[in-house]
Amino acid sequence: MTLAFKPAETFRKDFTYRNSEAGILRFPFPFAEDTYMYSVNIEPHLPGGPSPAYDHAFDVDEHYVAECKERAIVLAEDPNRCKVLPHMTEAQWDTLELIMESFAKDYPEHFSLQKNGTRWSWENRPLGLKDSFTFGDLSSLPYEPFEYITRQAQGDFTLQDQRDNNLFVDGGMVTTQADWSLEFDIGMTFHEWHGPVPLAHQLGVFDRALKFLLRLQYGQPVRRLNWTMTINPRLDTSPENYPVWGPDRNTVTPENVAQKVHLRVELQTLFRLPRSNAILFGIRCYLASVAELARVEKWRKRLHRVLRDLPPELEDYKGLTRYRKLVVDYLAPFDDGAPLSRGPQPDQTIL
Amino acid sequence: MSGPKLNLRVRSIEPLSPLLKRFELEMADGGEVPPFGPGAHLRFNLQGDHQRWKNAYSLVTPPTERRRYAVIVRRVEHSRGGSAFMHETVKPGQILEASVPANLFPVSQIARKHLLISGGIGITPFLSYLAAFKSKAAGYELHHFCRAKEAEIFGHLLRDHESSRIHIHAGTEFNLSSVLSSQPLGTHLYTCGPEGLMDLVLDTARTHGWPASKLHSESFGSAHMGGAPFIAILKRSGAEIAVREDQTLLEAIEEAGFEPTNLCRGGACGECLTRVLEGEPEHRDHYLDEGERASNCSIMICVSRAKTNRIVLDL
Question: Hey, are the CB atoms on A44 and B100 less than 8 Å from each other?
């Protein structure tokens, strides 16, 4: 499929972000069953699955150019959204190489990478960038390598150093986050930065996930989905900007609920990096309004059931308290209670 | 998960001594070899006429080298056959299958100084360390122990590095305590070689108050040597497998046509952890903690064996 980018879309003020019909059908819908609870839902990040969003190491979609512009706006306002601790330089180059090689291989019409030993030439046609640099030489790029390449990728990224049988979040590019702060979390251990999550600690989810991730192997990336909901298609729901977006939650009415409330899905990917032995954590955010999702018969019914029966701790942690009932009431008339197929796939190819 | 495979063509084989050979390998398709970090290894799938071996060897090339890999193989006296196969059967031009590099012995990114202590063939992971330290101008000190007749060979392998930082000890007096008690704060210690050497180094370091977080070791060789034969029963299939004295439990299971999950094949990574339903394991791994060992409920099948004549596994 050729990608038609929508460079004028916005994720703030007038919020012109929309999904095309193909965009709706490829949405990585997170609910395989009618109920939701935390689990160690980690699987190999191999091509294929219920959505084309899983087909490549890093998914590039119709929102690519607009999301890169949005990132640049956030960074101009707050440069601290990108931070990497000094011992992670090797991991920065690992990240640059992984993303450049993946983009060039998976989207050759949009990206190309030429290598002549350590002399590399990179072309990013959608963003109109062309740079030559020396791999390993920090002075040869306009930004540090991690910032350079993650300014050209959708979704947030963090870098985890592995030591003392733990993972430390020692770097990141975080501008499209669901209410967490890199500046606050940087340097924390795995359990520290997951501290606020309810219920999952008691289930032993983080102990098992950490043990698993410490053994993550190069060449065998893994993925999982996480989700929450966001008012308006706003990527930057950061603690730093809470005063800007927090009040939006009071603006939902029965009339605007389907347009205003968005399901926010994070496709989280984890890659062992070869030189540094660090782990790159990709947190790719997908947004679709309730109205868009309701165009898929299975999804409108399943979303209704999941939200209706959501445990109160999760409703509170995900910040849905003020409007969950409005969404459930909106979706209820569409749900006849008929059994739905297992798995998250849309079960239809046109809308 | 077994992971992506590489087809590597043997470019050249250089005998370093009667027991050591250096193999240079390149991608069979002519492309770049995948990147790796200091301490990484390749696990080869070696296919003999009647037997298969999966042997892991440390990469000794500088991590910046993308045209080729190199490994050094010691011909092990009481070999299970893999190192003998590498020494005697493998020829230049031959294609070998290997997994992409994995790293169970990475360098610390926060160390102020790296103190390396190796014995014999245990030098191999440090050859990629030294190349990386050189390019980053990191502080280090290497002590290598070997037999007097091999001192020259190891000296040759280390010739490109600052001689003031490299100390080869071939039967000469050496005061381990004094080296371990006189390091600057922020030093990390790495040791690789025979079990006896590593145990001595780590015990001495602990005695001198080194915290566990600054101690790193990689076992080589002896951990997965053979032992008394025994019978393994795989509960789920009912298969009854005779484990010979010259093979590991994992190899015997694979020989019988099963493919249990595994990775490092050296008792370190935890991937092959298997539940024990009956019988008593003889633990030889570095993964299980004291409590897990004592409970006899789990076994790392890549290196551990059975104390009892029979062991029943949840496989």
Answer: no
Residue B128 contacts residue B39 (beta carbons within 8 Å): yes
In this complex, the residue of A44, A90, A274 whose CB is nearest that of residue B101 is: A274
Among the partner residues A97, A136, A161, nearest to B109 by beta-carbon distance: A161
Which residues in chain B are classed under CATH 2.40.30.10? Answer: 5-103
Which candidate from A115, A163, A274 shows the least CB-CB separation from B36? A274
The answer to whether the Cβ–Cβ distance between B109 and A163 falls below 8 Å is: yes
Residues of A involved in catalysis: 224
User: For residues B274 and B311, is the Cβ–Cβ distance under 8 A?
Assistant: no
CB-CB contact of B28 with B8 (8 Å): yes
* Separation in Å, CA of A200 to nearest CA in chain B: 23
Residue A42 vs residues A273, A277, B95, B284: alpha-carbon distances, Å: 18, 20, 35, 30
For residue A110, the SS3 value is coil
Q: Where in chain B is the domain with CATH 3.40.50.80?
A: 113-219
C-alpha distances (whole Å) from B212 to each of B188, B206, B230, B287, B291 are 10, 8, 36, 15, 19
ipTM: 0.87
What H or E segment, with its residue span, contains residue B96?
Answer: strand B95-99
For helices A297-308 and A324-331, the axis angle rounded to 10 degrees is 140
Superfamily of domain B5-103 in the CATH hierarchy: Translation factors (2.40.30.10)
Other C-beta atoms closer than 10 Å to the C-beta of B88 total 10
Query: Domain B224-313, CATH 3.10.20.30 — does that match?
Result: yes
In angstroms, the CA A192 to CA A186 distance is 10
Residues 209-268 of B with CB under 8 A from A: 212-213, 263
Residue-level pLDDT, tens digit, chain B, 315 residues: 356 899 999 999 999 999 999 999 999 999 999 999 999 999 998 998 888 888 899 999 998 899 999 999 999 877 678 899 999 999 999 999 999 999 989 999 999 999 999 999 999 999 999 999 988 878 999 999 999 999 999 999 999 998 999 999 998 788 999 999 999 999 999 999 998 999 999 999 999 999 999 999 986 544 445 688 999 999 999 999 999 887 889 989 998 999 998 766 767 667 889 999 999 999 988 778 888 899 999 999 988 999 999 999 999
Q: CATH number of the domain at B113-219, please?
A: 3.40.50.80
